[in-house]
Amino acid sequence: MLLQFFAGLQRRFRFTHPSRSLVAGILCLVSVVGCGVEAESMAAIDDTGDLHLTYGKAKGEEFKRIRTALEETGFFDDLVDQLNEKLAFPNDINIVFTNCGVANAFYSPSDLEITMCYELIAYYLQIFEENIETEEDYQAEVIDATSFTFFHELGHAFVDQYELPITGNEEDAADNFATIIMLDVYGDDLGVISGMFQFDAEAMEEMENPEDLAYWGEHSLSTQRYYNTACLIYGSDPESFSFIVEDEYLPEERAERCESEYEQKSAAWWTLMEPFLKEEI
Length: 281
Ligand SMILES: [Zn+2]
Hints:
By secondary structure, this protein is α/β, with parallel strands linked by helices. It has helices at 2-16, 22-32, 61-73, 75-86, 118-129, 135-161, 170-186, 193-207, 222-236, 243-246, 252-255, 258-273, and strands at residues 51-55, 93-98, 105-108, 113-117. It binds zinc ion (ZN).
């Protein structure tokens, strides 16, 4: 299954990904924030840094295959190139895929580094394997879940580097950023749904030991992250994502205000980001 996954991963990137253009998405977003056809302003900061992607040594055959697949597809290499082209960064930020000993991802402001653990991708391979309908869907879900997590960490990096005035919980804001960038850049692509199901899988694991739930934690509980993400997705386009309510992924009581929730959060994020988009966009 794993080898098939990686073969399919390459097919997906080669033939599917180019249509999901970040460049086109950001062009669209410029009009979302009211700039009209062209961005008129220079980025508000000097572009003195870039994102730098590296793949750390992988321990063991499973992680080596994950590393090889990541390198061969070039998905994150292309994404990083596009982000560097379209956004001004004050400092270099390293993005490192590596073994961490734990299925996680994190941004370190002191090291200026986003760490994406190979173990996390192995975890996505595991949780999405349980609901496989087609091999293609399985591959897409793992890729999109990894992308969602990357954008969450990038959200933290933006808050830190651009000194964005976030009110409320930064973890929730980073979830919102990941959801919104995937929705607004990829349009009605179902990829962002993987982010929602990722929280659903984590919520089910959490509920196995409810006495251990971390009410004190920085992150909202996975169940809440799941519903908040579902609300933004549904609210972005209730017609395209009607199944979220019809199939009872999200209760009506919450769904009725999700359009305005989405509009508010999308406008907030792109208003905050707009000064850092480069002129040539
Ligand atoms: Zn976070």
